[in-house]
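quick one: adenosine-5'-triphosphate bound model?
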Amino acid sequence: MSSSQATNGPSGNIDALLQEHRRFPPPPAFAEHAVAHDPAVYQRAHDDPDGFWAEAARRLDWYKTWDKVLEWDAPWAKWFVGGELNASYNCVDRHNATWRRNKAAIIWEGEPGDTRVLTYRDLYREVNRAAAALLDLGVKKGDVVAVYMPMIPELPIALLACARIGAPHTVVFGGFSAEALRDRINDSGAKLVITADGGWRRGNVVPLKETTDAAVQGAPTIEHVLVVKRVGEARPVEMKDGRDVWWEDALAKASQRIVEPEHLDSEHPLYIMYTSGTTGKPKGQLHTTGGYLTGTSLTHQWIFDLKEDDVYWCTADIGWVTGHSYIVYGPLANGSSVVMYEGSPDYPDKDRFWDLVEKYGVTILYTAPTSIRTFMRWGPEYPAKHDMSTLRLMGTVGEPINPEAWMWYQEHIGHGTCPIVDTWWQTETGMIMITPLPGIVATKPGSATRPFPGVEPAILDEQGTAVPRNSGGNLVITRPWPAMSRTIWGDPQRYVNTYWSKYPGVYLTGDGARQDDDGYYWLLGRVDDVVNVSGHRLGTMEVESALVSHPAVAEAAVIGVSHPVKGQAIVAFVTPRAGFKPSDALTVELKEHVVQAIGALARPERIYYTAELPKTRSAKIMRRLLRDIAEGRVLGDTTTLMDPNVVNQIKQQYESSEG
Ligand code: ATP
Ligand code: MG
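yep, here:
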């Protein structure tokens, strides 16, 4: 299939499916008190983007004000040129200097039920001690620090300590293998790795130190391994003399030393974050300081309607960009109270999240469609056990949310009234790009709605011409934005080729989208995933969404396979909901259901039932592996795969049914 072409759904039918005309205006009481309530902000930002972003940057504390807002030599951007600041100072010190010193910064709960609350004062103390410990271990400004940790308070403390001394961090999700960790250490050239003896997951210990030991074999740049004691007796670890240091000891030695934050250039590297690898080998995105902090803190405040007394919970892992931007940097720069949870949502039972919402009085919840579909599969009786009346706003990120899941989320989690912000963005964009402002924009289930003020997307055809309303195309961003990735670490040419070559000077997202009659954006999935049936281009998301709207279907992944007549035919992999058994009758029914929803051309040629779908560690469906199976190819990069067994099972099933 020609993978880079625009998507073009048969919009008449899909509109009905996506409930395009179902609108949820901001509840009046919500709109009245919303942080962002003036619709004129969109026009203002459009007319003078530099002025808009400069105003936004003033929310931060700068040691030295910038000389120039933006220097743009496509594709190389510099934001707030000549300015100096420190991210750690902005997330910690400046709050510690006000009444917020006794406000909860991090409200943490471990999986076994242990809890810790760190005020901004506590955070200030711990970040200073950790920064001193890093200096004692020989880490200097510009050195890269790898972080491979469970979701414990020492994780954000470690990041802020790195930022304080100007050492860029690279966090590797704690579920990754030794090989994946080693690759990222070697790619980034990290000198130190910070880990823990283990972390708790579903009642078991994740042996992080052992995995780190294996990874560091073959990672010659690593000089020290700094180890937080999290599980202790449950998993004694070996400490290698001269190389390994306990976090506790290193911090005790640092005592109460205050480490003055480095005055860093606005473009100083803050971190490297590898993409999920849904479409191929992960890319190390470099994020820098001033623009990134401006973009993440502004979007966090406006999109989540952040008030001083909110209790904000983003359920992502800090191992992903979502955790960097919307657990650590955005929220802490804004002085908010952030909930952090170590473990699994089904431990000890499937209501753990809702227990936490009730216990801490969470007001803002940010999670992923894949989690919502899992909660749907488990059933509404779990949230129903808890009083979640404190919730007032909810968000989603990571994938297009099918309208079915959107409605369920609002009904069963958001007590029928919470506005939902569907936020589209990427590791590369650093900050949310397309999203409702919940006090201004009416939402439509399944649509990310409008670009954030100052963000200028477009939808282009292959020639680079903007497509008309209601046709699909390549989603691009036509103007630089402050939190954008500056390059791919160690491979600037790949940065140019991947994002800036198809349309010179314009950022290619890799996602397909279309705009409806109201100008709302509908994300259609990855352009690489588009299926071409008899000359009609279907977004996989459209067909999957139709399948998931059937009561028997929990999850679905759709791919195109070569077909002698149609060019491509649709093959669907379906995970049934609890209580539904695969059968020929169900297959017939599901095919018919898709035809009803979209049209005959979207009828799946074949449907396979599978208990799980192949997903990345960030829980995104890897359709490319399903395509590899279907086309009988060697499987592509599988290092970011959550469970390698899943692909093998599907492969066997596929091949036996073929033969
Ligand atoms: P790789 O780039 O290595 O293939 P990835 O794209 O999965 O990995 P991320 O940066 O974590 O890595 O994911 C960004 C992608 O997630 C977006 O490009 C988009 O496809 C999808 N996405 C995120 N949020 C949304 C959303 N609200 N609606 C639709 N799609 C979304
Ligand atoms: Mg991507």
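Residues 275-280, 282-283, 397-400, 422-424, 426-427, 448, 509-511, 523, 526, 618, 620 surround adenosine-5'-triphosphate (ligand 1) (CB under 6 Å).
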